[in-house]
Recover the amino acids of this structure.
């Protein structure tokens, strides 16, 4: 049976993500070693499986189960060509590639290898002595094959598997007559493999590695970073979240949990099947209850859990930047304002019963506030505050990309709650309306 164009697109989208991720990693990490085609192919295919699995799991959590292979094949053409899904997979592929690159630049494979080989007498290192030696060199002395001595600052050198070459700046040559080094007459000098007899290290490069810079940002010592940067960072985050004075945020989280528990109980007693049926249907049956509770209603456990996580990462560290009164007013007004904005967008493209609910508008507002307030007004931020800024950046990207993902001019086109929430929070942070006195 001949393949249809839709089938070709499906298989390309299924296989391509891993190749995008691997090539992104190779490019960003500036890998110069020759990698066999078979190794690249295996890594790419494995990465495709990982990326596709992550995407499909997220898709099924949000859109419902994919119950057959035929449904999977038509995923990108139901009910129309879903360019937004392809862009999401592409974005996820790039993110995975960036993660790979960071791991390579931070030398995580080398650290794992050294940990495994810590008791061995002979240690294999794929970089070989030349690259390991030059990697930490700042200033070197070179004895050439014609018995001349040169010294200078290292600019660049060849990697393992390549001819041994090195370029130095401010080159000086040793003069037997003067018994001292004299300028060699150029800004830089290149030594080829046939020129080099011996290289001696004069001064090590004091520039921290990528891994050291990351651990420095996290506030960890070198000993901690060598032992377990991940565990130390998690401990630091947990301690900072634990010590945060965030009474209002905790009360909001308790309110969300109480309302969600009521949703579960009512759903069970009424035999409605899912919480989403109750949360959506209550707007038609009891609108006078639904709309006042709309900022704290949720359609399922994932929706509820996402709200708790969002309030944890941007609510707990941010509350201390507000006066308690202003923070409470901000949460209440933003909650209802984002609901109204989201409902207005839905109403623009739908003449059916409106049901718009959730806490994500508040979370987007807190993320927007984090992005515009923290980096502009504070130095020496805590780890949790830096993470809140990162979430703010992610929220900004989400809001900017949302109008281009479709389905266009339909109720699900733009999430008005997210967009309005981010704009409100960003404006409050920019114009310093929170009363922060830190």
């Amino acid at each position: 049976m001949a393949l249809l164009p839709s089938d070709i697109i499906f298989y390309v989208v299924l296989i391509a993500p891993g190749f995008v991720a691997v090539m992104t990693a190779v490019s960003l990490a500036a890998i110069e070693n020759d990698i066999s085609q078979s190794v690249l192919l295996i890594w790419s295919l494995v990465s495709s499986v990982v990326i596709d699995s992550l995407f499909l799991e997220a898709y099924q959590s949000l859109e419902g189960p994919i119950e057959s292979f035929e449904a999977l094949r038509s995923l990108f053409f139901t009910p129309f060509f879903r360019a937004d899904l392809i862009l999401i997979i592409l974005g996820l592929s790039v993110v995975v590639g960036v993660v790979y690159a960071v791991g390579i630049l931070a030398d995580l494979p080398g650290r794992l290898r050294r940990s495994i080989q810590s008791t061995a007498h002979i240690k294999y290192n794929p970089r070989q002595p030349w690259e390991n030696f030059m990697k930490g060199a700042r200033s070197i002395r070179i004895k050439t094959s014609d018995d001349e001595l040169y010294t200078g600052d290292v600019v660049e050198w060849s990697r393992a598997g390549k001819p041994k070459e090195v370029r130095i700046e401010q080159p000086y040559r040793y003069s037997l007559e003067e018994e001292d080094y004299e300028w060699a007459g150029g800004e830089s000098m290149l030594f080829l493999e046939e020129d080099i007899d011996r290289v001696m290290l004069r001064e090590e490069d004091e520039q921290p590695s990528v891994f050291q810079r990351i651990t420095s940002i996290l506030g960890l010592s070198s000993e901690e970073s060598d032992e377990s940067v991940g565990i130390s960072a998690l401990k630091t985050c947990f301690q900072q979240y634990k010590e945060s004075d965030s009474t209002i945020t905790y009360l909001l989280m308790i309110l969300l949990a109480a309302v969600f528990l009521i949703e579960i109980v009512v759903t069970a007693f009424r035999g409605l099947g899912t919480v989403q049926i109750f949360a959506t249907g209550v707007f038609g049956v009891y609108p006078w209850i639904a709309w006042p509770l709309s900022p704290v209603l949720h359609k399922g456990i994932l929706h509820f859990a996402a709200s708790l996580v969002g309030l944890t990462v941007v609510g707990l560290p941010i509350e201390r930047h507000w006066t308690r009164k202003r923070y409470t007013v901000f949460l209440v007004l933003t909650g209802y304002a984002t609901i109204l904005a989201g409902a207005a967008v839905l109403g623009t493209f739908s003449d059916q019963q409106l049901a718009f609910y959730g806490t994500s508008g508040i979370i987007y507002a807190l993320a927007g506030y984090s992005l515009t307030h923290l980096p502009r007004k504070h130095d020496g931020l805590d780890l949790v505050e830096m993470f809140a800024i990162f979430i703010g950046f992610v929220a900004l990207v989400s809001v900017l990309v949302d109008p281009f993902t479709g389905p266009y001019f339909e109720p699900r086109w733009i999430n008005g709650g997210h967009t309005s929430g981010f704009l409100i929070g960003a404006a409050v942070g920019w114009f310093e309306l929170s009363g922060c006195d830190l």
About this structure: Confidence is low (pLDDT under 50) at residues 220-229. The first helix runs from residue 5 to 28.
